[in-house]
C-alpha cells in the first residue's frame, strides 16, 4: 500500500496517504500506527460500477466474503502505472505511461481495430516516468511496443549553468525512474573522494519540497559536457530499463504488444458496459413494473379500496386484486404497502413522470445492447472524462537518437598542438599551454 501512495513510484497514485510514506531518497515509511490512508479519487475509477455486476466474483481466501476476480478499471491502469514482479520462471516489467496519452491510444484502437504501432505512437510516443528524465532514442520503445520486449536508456535531466571566472555547475533536475537519490549522492561523493572526477569541486544537495536538485560545482576551466558524459558513464544518472510486457490473459501468461494490451483492455471495457447496461435495464424494468401497478390502482382507487376493506387477510386482498386487474404479486404487494398520501394528485403526477423517465431509459438501454457503435462511444466518452479530471502533462522527454558513451565522449573538445621532437616523440598539448611556453605559437 505504501508504494501506491508514492508519487515518485506511481504515475497516478491510487492511495491518498497522510503521514510519512517514504521518499525518493530511500527513506522507509513510518509504522502504520503513525499513518492514515484512503483511496485516491483516481482509484475510485478502478472500482466504479463494481456494484452493478460488471465483473465476476469469487470467494476470498477463507470463503467468508466475495471478492472481484478483476476490477472494472475505467482507465488502463496496467499501462498507466506499469507493473513489475518476479515469479517462478517468469518476470514482468511494464513501464508507466501518461494517463491522457494512454486513453488517446485506447480511443484510437476503438475507432480503428487495424491501427498500427506507428499510428499508436503518434499519440502515445513512449513511457512517462513519475520522476521524469529523458529516454534516449525511440528504437527501444518501438521494439517494446511491437514485440512486448525492448531496452530503454533513461538519463537524468541536467542543466549546465555557466558561472563566473570560468566556473560552471551541473544541476540535476530529474533522475531516472526507481533510482535511489541518496545512493546516487553517495556514489557522486565517492567518485570525488577517489579523485576519479577531479573536475568536480563540490556537490550540493539542493532538494526541497519543490524539487530534487543536485548541484555539482566544477573547477575553473572544466569542460561541463565532458564531466556530464563521465557521470552518465559511471553513475545512475543514466540507467537501463528492460521492458517485458508479460500479463495474464484469461489466466494464461502472455507477452503482449502495445496494441494487444489496448485491445484486451477495450474488450474488457465493452464487457463492463454491456453488463452494467443489463443490470440497469433489469432494475429499470423492475421499477417500471411496480409503477405500472400503482397507476392501475390509482385509476381504480375506489374499487381497490373496496376490495381491500372486504378482505380478511393480505393474501386474500392480493389474490382478489390479481384476479380483478391482472396484476402480478409484486405489484399487489406495492399497492397494499402504498401510503394514503400517495392518493393525492401531486403524488400521482410524480409516479407518472417517473414511469415516463423509466420507459425512456429502458428504450436507451436496449439500444445500447443492440448497437456496438453506441457502446464504443460510451467507452470513449467516459474515458475522456477521466482524462479531463486526472490527466497531467508529460514528464519524460524522448530524444530522437542515442548512442553508447565511448572514450571519445570523455575527451574535452579543445584546440591542440601536435609536435614532434628531434628524438621522434610525438606530443599533444592544448594551444593555451603551448602559447604559455612561448615557442612561437
UniProtKB/TrEMBL annotation:
<comment type="similarity">
    <text>Belongs to the type II topoisomerase GyrA/ParC subunit family.</text>
</comment>
<keyword id="KW-0238">DNA-binding</keyword>
<keyword id="KW-0175">Coiled coil</keyword>
<dbReference type="GO" id="GO:0006265">
    <property type="term" value="P:DNA topological change"/>
</dbReference>
<dbReference type="InterPro" id="IPR035516">
    <property type="entry name" value="Gyrase/topoIV_suA_C"/>
</dbReference>
<dbReference type="Pfam" id="PF00521">
    <property type="entry name" value="DNA_topoisoIV"/>
</dbReference>
<dbReference type="GO" id="GO:0005737">
    <property type="term" value="C:cytoplasm"/>
</dbReference>
<feature type="domain" description="Topo IIA-type catalytic">
    <location>
        <begin position="1"/>
        <end position="410"/>
    </location>
</feature>
<keyword id="KW-0799">Topoisomerase</keyword>
<dbReference type="InterPro" id="IPR002205">
    <property type="entry name" value="Topo_IIA_dom_A"/>
</dbReference>
<dbReference type="InterPro" id="IPR050220">
    <property type="entry name" value="Type_II_DNA_Topoisomerases"/>
</dbReference>
<protein>
    <recommendedName>
        <fullName>DNA topoisomerase (ATP-hydrolyzing)</fullName>
        <ecNumber>5.6.2.2</ecNumber>
    </recommendedName>
</protein>
<dbReference type="GO" id="GO:0003677">
    <property type="term" value="F:DNA binding"/>
</dbReference>
<feature type="coiled-coil region">
    <location>
        <begin position="341"/>
        <end position="368"/>
    </location>
</feature>
<dbReference type="GO" id="GO:0009330">
    <property type="term" value="C:DNA topoisomerase type II (double strand cut, ATP-hydrolyzing) complex"/>
</dbReference>
<dbReference type="InterPro" id="IPR013760">
    <property type="entry name" value="Topo_IIA-like_dom_sf"/>
</dbReference>
<keyword id="KW-0413">Isomerase</keyword>
<dbReference type="GO" id="GO:0034335">
    <property type="term" value="F:DNA negative supercoiling activity"/>
</dbReference>
<dbReference type="InterPro" id="IPR013758">
    <property type="entry name" value="Topo_IIA_A/C_ab"/>
</dbReference>
<dbReference type="InterPro" id="IPR013757">
    <property type="entry name" value="Topo_IIA_A_a_sf"/>
</dbReference>
<feature type="active site" description="O-(5'-phospho-DNA)-tyrosine intermediate">
    <location>
        <position position="34"/>
    </location>
</feature>
<dbReference type="GO" id="GO:0005524">
    <property type="term" value="F:ATP binding"/>
</dbReference>
Amino acid at each position: 500500500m505504501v508504494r501506491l501512495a508514492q508519487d515518485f513510484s506511481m504515475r497516478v497514485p491510487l492511495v491518498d496517504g497522510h503521514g510519512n510514506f517514504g521518499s525518493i531518497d530511500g527513506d522507509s515509511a513510518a509504522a502504520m500506527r503513525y499513518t492514515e490512508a484512503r483511496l485516491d479519487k483516481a482509484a475510485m475509477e478502478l472500482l466504479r460500477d463494481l456494484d452493478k455486476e460488471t465483473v465476476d466474483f469469487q470467494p476470498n481466501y477463507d470463503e467468508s466474503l466475495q471478492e472481484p476476480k478483476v476490477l472494472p478499471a475505467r482507465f488502463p491502469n496496467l499501462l498507466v502505472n506499469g507493473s513489475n514482479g518476479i515469479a517462478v520462471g517468469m518476470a514482468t516489467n511494464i513501464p508507466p505511461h501518461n494517463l491522457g496519452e494512454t486513453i488517446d491510444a485506447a480511443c484510437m484502437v476503438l475507432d480503428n481495430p487495424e491501427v498500427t504501432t506507428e499510428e499508436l505512437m503518434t499519440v502515445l510516443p513512449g513511457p512517462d516516468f513519475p520522476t521524469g528524465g529523458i529516454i534516449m532514442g525511440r528504437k527501444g520503445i518501438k521494439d517494446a511496443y511491437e514485440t512486448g520486449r525492448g531496452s530503454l536508456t533513461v538519463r537524468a535531466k541536467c542543466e549546465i549553468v555557466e558561472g563566473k571566472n570560468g566556473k560552471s555547475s551541473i544541476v540535476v533536475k530529474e533522475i531516472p525512474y526507481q533510482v535511489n537519490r541518496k545512493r546516487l549522492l553517495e556514489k557522486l561523493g565517492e567518485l570525488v573522494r577517489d579523485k576519479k572526477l577531479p573536475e568536480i569541486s563540490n556537490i550540493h544537495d539542493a532538494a526541497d519540497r519543490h524539487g530534487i536538485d543536485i548541484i555539482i560545482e566544477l573547477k575553473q576551466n572544466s569542460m561541463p559536457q565532458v564531466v556530464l558524459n563521465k557521470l552518465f558513464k559511471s553513475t545512475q544518472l543514466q540507467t537501463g530499463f528492460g521492458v517485458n510486457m508479460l500479463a495474464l490473459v484469461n489466466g494464461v501468461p502472455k507477452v503482449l504488444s502495445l496494441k494487444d494490451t489496448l485491445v484486451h483492455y477495450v474488450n474488457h471495457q465493452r464487457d463492463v458496459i454491456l453488463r452494467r447496461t443489463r443490470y440497469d435495464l433489469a432494475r429499470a424494468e423492475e421499477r417500471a413494473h411496480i409503477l405500472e401497478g400503482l397507476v392501475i390502482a390509482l385509476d381504480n382507487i375506489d374499487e381497490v379500496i373496496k376490495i381491500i376493506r372486504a378482505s380478511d387477510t393480505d393474501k386474500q386482498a392480493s389474490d382478489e386484486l390479481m384476479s380483478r386487474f391482472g396484476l402480478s404479486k409484486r405489484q399487489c404487494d406495492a399497492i397494499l404497502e402504498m401510503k394514503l398520501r400517495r392518493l393525492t394528485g401531486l403524488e400521482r403526477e410524480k409516479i407518472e413522470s417517473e414511469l415516463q423517465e423509466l420507459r425512456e431509459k429502458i428504450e436507451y438501454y436496449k439500444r445500447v445492447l443492440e448497437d456496438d457503435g453506441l457502446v464504443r462511444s460510451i467507452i470513449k466518452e467516459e474515458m475522456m472524462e477521466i482524462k479531463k479530471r486526472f490527466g497531467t502533462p508529460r514528464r519524460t522527454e524522448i530524444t530522437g537518437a542515442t548512442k553508447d558513451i565511448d572514450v571519445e565522449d570523455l575527451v574535452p573538445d579543445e584546440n591542440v598542438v601536435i609536435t614532434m621532437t628531434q628524438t621522434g616523440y610525438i606530443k599533444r598539448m592544448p594551444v593555451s599551454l603551448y602559447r604559455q611556453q612561448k615557442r612561437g605559437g
